[in-house]
């Protein structure tokens, strides 16, 4: 989701009064410390980053934010994230108090430096060796459900059809992890494909504290439903150490995210970070288990589409060594333009090319 | 696709008669071949003379032609014997062309269809007619005209057995044949309507998801509906960004059903896997708004959801795709998997 929106023009108070942290066990009670490293083979380490008032950034990406964890290129981190909501909001909507995470309560109580966005982002994680102009390769190894429910909501002034729905509504939707479906309503079940709405680096220092709402050159609130476990996300680095943050868990979502929320929930992810000195990108890109993805992010939807197509042509020329003309033709005949989201200030369009079109040595 | 940049000459399929009917019970099965007498070149028009009259529930096998000319195909490398005779005949003989560039087979008059009804078009089968497709772009066309201010055309062999297009060494595109253009006549006052922009009467939707097994619902704006079809695509990406797909000739089997009980403003579709609503406008944002509103209306009207639940389901389970960006009116379609309805959905 994206809600809070457009740089504070509205403030999405509607879903955010308070928060807190889990302190104990979201991921497993065996990890007591918020940060913990375990040696693994080859020098790469494995860390766990729990979500606490000391390990989150509430509503922004910023090159000046002190990191909460430092890792080396190649290291892996289990990261807990929290639903974009408050205990009160969730309880009012019908979540039993026992199912509201303690970490959300703690953060709601203790974190006072908030905004302009409304997402509780875990991080930032400092990746050693990442310099401005590099690319941070983020391998999303796992994305697991942390709570047995999600919510969907809309409110006046938000979403893609604010004039059609000038009032607020929130609905708690039970998640069945075993069957991997959301029980939307009697007779209606939505298949789950958990992903993080927001994953990003710090923006350039000169842009200051950037709202967690609009996705941009540092990625952030992409709300891209195709970035599921098994995906590798490539994010341009704009600050020393990259300063990766993640949150806004979605158990599922439609392309467009039209009412401004997805199946909003808390997720636990496993990420491996790799500093790529050999890659230089202007915009984020991704490779899923099945597709290559390029992205266009802009307040104008037409510009989004242009960016995504130009990025795909550049990808095909640079990485797959096609001629520019063939790249344009392949984009027209085999790559799909999807509307990522329409509701985050900057809109998003992504272009998806099935990896399976490359059947042999693609030169 | 859209242009006129790829069309200079065209002709008919020989074989038997252009129109033939076989009675089966009450409903009939017809065959409609493209000849200089059975095509509309470049337009939809309530005043166009029907080339075939059928009853509701009748089925018609319709042959359609690639949007191109024999000359350009041969120049691009198609062996002359692989250029269809029907394309040669039509190119030579049809003088009343434009404003669009598509050779559309029809119109077909469906008896009983009245203004305000809906024509239900069941696309039963779609077959390749030739073993090649082309893709092309040209100056002033496509979505990135400033990046590609020159013309290029490429012949792409189609392997019907494996259902792939051999785009280049090491690159194969899976085929999913569909008709770029399927539509009724627009309202009479719209006159002769360019076959390029899709609109309330459907037409040049260029929607890659309308594959065989899909039912398309098109508002009727003229007595008899006056259905036309053409612009075969062996495959395409959402967006059709360079202005062409895998352009080819296709043969389709269509059943037509007049729906007096339905009243739609915009076309809708049901594929084997999805419900589809559409937004068609020159502004992409307006396209998206229309497609979402149409999906909410569909869910309320047909699935009896509350409006709020419909909005929420659209946000959490339905996907907005950019249908095409290059046909004058752009297109966005919203796709909801039918599989979300697992039980009695009221």
Task: Give an account of the 3D structure.
The complex is a heterodimer of chains A (363) and B (346). Chain A is 12% helix and 34% strand. By secondary structure, chain A is mainly beta. In chain A, the strands form 4 sheets. In chain A, strands 1-2-6-18-8-16-19-20-22-21 form a 10-stranded mixed β-sheet. In chain A, a hairpin with a 5-residue loop joins strand 1 and strand 2 (45-49). In chain A, helix 3 packs across helix 4. Chain A is globular and about 60 Å long. Chain B has 2 domains: 19-259, Acetamidase/Formamidase-like domains (Jelly Rolls, Sandwich); 273-340, Endonuclease I-creI (Roll), CATH 3.10.28. Helices cover 13% and strands 36% of the residues of chain B. In chain B, helix 3 (284-301) packs across helix 4 (307-317). The N and C termini of chain B lie far apart (40 Å).
Quick structural gist:
In chain A, 12% of the residues lie in helices and 34% in strands. By secondary structure, chain A is mainly beta.
Topology:
The complex is a heterodimer of chains A (363) and B (346).
Chain A: E1 35-39, E2 45-49, E3 56-58, E4 60-61, E5 69-71, E6 76-80, H1 87-92, H2 102-110, E7 120-127, E8 135-145, E9 149-154, E10 169-176, E11 181-185, E12 188-191, E13 195-200, E14 210-211, E15 219-220, E16 232-236, E17 244-250, E18 267-276, E19 285-287, E20 291-298, H3 301-318, H4 324-334, E21 336-341, E22 347-354
Parallel strand pairs in A: 2-6, 5-7
Antiparallel strand pairs in A: 1-2, 3-7, 4-14, 6-18, 7-17, 8-16, 8-18, 9-10, 10-11, 11-12, 13-15, 13-17, 16-19, 19-20, 20-22, 21-22
Chain B: E1 19-24, E2 27-32, E3 39-41, E4 43-44, E5 52-54, E6 59-63, H1 70-75, H2 85-93, E7 103-110, E8 118-128, E9 132-137, E10 152-159, E11 164-168, E12 171-174, E13 178-183, E14 193-194, E15 202-203, E16 215-219, E17 227-233, E18 250-259, E19 268-270, E20 274-281, H3 284-301, H4 307-317, E21 319-324, E22 330-337
Parallel strand pairs in B: 2-6, 5-7
Antiparallel strand pairs in B: 1-2, 3-7, 4-14, 6-18, 7-17, 8-16, 8-18, 9-10, 10-11, 11-12, 13-15, 13-17, 16-19, 19-20, 20-22, 21-22
């Amino acid at each position: 989701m994206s809600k809070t929106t457009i740089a504070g023009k509205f403030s999405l108070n509607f879903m955010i009064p308070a928060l807190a942290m889990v302190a104990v066990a979201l991921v497993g009670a065996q990890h007591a410390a918020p940060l913990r490293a375990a040696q693994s083979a080859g020098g790469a380490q494995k860390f766990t980053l729990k979500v606490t008032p000391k390990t989150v950034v509430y509503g922004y990406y910023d090159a000046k934010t002190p990191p909460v964890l430092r890792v080396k290129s190649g290291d892996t981190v289990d990261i807990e994230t929290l639903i974009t909501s408050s205990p009160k909001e969730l309880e009012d909507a019908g979540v039993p108090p026992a199912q509201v995470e303690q970490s959300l309560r703690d953060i709601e109580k203790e974190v006072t430096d908030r905004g302009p966005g409304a997402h509780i982002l875990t991080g930032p994680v400092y990746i050693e060796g990442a310099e401005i102009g590099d690319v941070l390769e983020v391998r999303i190894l796992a994305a697991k459900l942390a709570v047995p429910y999600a919510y969907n909501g809309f409110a006046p002034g938000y979403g893609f059809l604010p004039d059609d729905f000038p009032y607020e509504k929130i609905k708690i939707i039970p998640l069945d992890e075993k069957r991997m479906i959301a029980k939307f309503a009697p007779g209606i079940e939505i298949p789950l494909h958990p992903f993080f709405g927001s994953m990003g680096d710090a923006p350039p220092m000169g842009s200051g504290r950037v709202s967690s709402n609009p996705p941009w050159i540092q990625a952030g609130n992409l709300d891209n439903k195709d970035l599921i476990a098994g995906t590798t996300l490539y994010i341009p680095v704009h600050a020393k150490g990259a300063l990766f943050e993640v949150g806004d868990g979605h158990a599922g979502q439609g392309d467009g995210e039209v009412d401004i929320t997805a199946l909003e929930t808390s997720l636990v992810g496993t990420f491996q970070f790799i500093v790529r000195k050999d890659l230089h990108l202007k915009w984020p890109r991704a490779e899923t288990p099945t597709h290559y993805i390029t992205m266009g992010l802009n307040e104008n939807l037409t510009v989004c589409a242009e960016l995504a197509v130009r990025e795909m042509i550049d990808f095909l020329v640079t990485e797959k060594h096609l001629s520019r003309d063939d790249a344009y033709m392949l984009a027209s005949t085999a790559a799909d333009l999807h509307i990522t989201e329409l509701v985050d200030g900057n809109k998003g369009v992504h272009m998806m090319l099935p990896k399976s079109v490359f059947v042999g040595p693609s030169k | 696709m859209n242009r006129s940049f790829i069309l200079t000459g065209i002709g008919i399929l020989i074989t038997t008669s252009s129109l033939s009917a076989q009675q089966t019970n009450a409903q009939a099965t017809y065959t409609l071949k493209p000849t200089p007498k059975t095509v509309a070149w470049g337009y939809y028009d309530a005043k166009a003379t029907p080339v075939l009259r059928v009853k509701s529930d009748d089925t018609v096998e319709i042959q359609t032609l690639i949007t191109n000319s024999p000359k350009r195909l041969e120049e691009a490398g198609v062996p002359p014997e692989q250029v269809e005779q029907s394309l040669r005949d039509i190119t030579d003989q049809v003088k009343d062309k434009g404003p669009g560039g598509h050779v559309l087979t029809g119109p077909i008059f469906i008896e009983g269809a009245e203004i305000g009804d809906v024509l239900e078009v069941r696309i039963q089968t779609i077959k390749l007619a030739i073993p090649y497709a082309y893709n092309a772009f040209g100056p002033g066309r496509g979505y990135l005209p400033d990046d590609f201010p020159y013309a290029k055309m490429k012949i792409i062999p189609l392997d019907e057995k494996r259902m792939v297009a051999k785009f280049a060494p090491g690159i194969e595109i899976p085929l999913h044949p569909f008709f770029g253009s399927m539509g009724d006549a627009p309202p009479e006052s719209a006159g002769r309507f360019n076959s390029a922009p899709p609109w309330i009467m459907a037409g040049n939707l260029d929607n890659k998801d309308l594959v065989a097994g899909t039912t398309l619902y098109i508002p009727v704006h003229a007595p008899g509906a006056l259905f036309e079809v053409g612009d075969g695509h062996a495959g395409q990406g959402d967006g059709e960004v360079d202005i062409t797909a895998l352009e080819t000739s296709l043969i389709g089997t269509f059943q037509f059903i007049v729906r007096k009980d339905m009243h739609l403003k915009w076309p809708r579709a049901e594929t084997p896997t999805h419900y589809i609503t559409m937004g068609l406008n020159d502004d992409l944002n307006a396209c998206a708004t229309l497609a979402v509103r149409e999906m909410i209306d569909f869910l309320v009207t047909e699935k009896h959801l509350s409006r709020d639940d419909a909005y929420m389901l659209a946000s959490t389970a339905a996907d907005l795709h950019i249908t095409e960006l290059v046909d004058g009116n752009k297109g966005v379609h919203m796709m909801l998997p039918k599989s979300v309805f697992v039980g009695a959905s009221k």
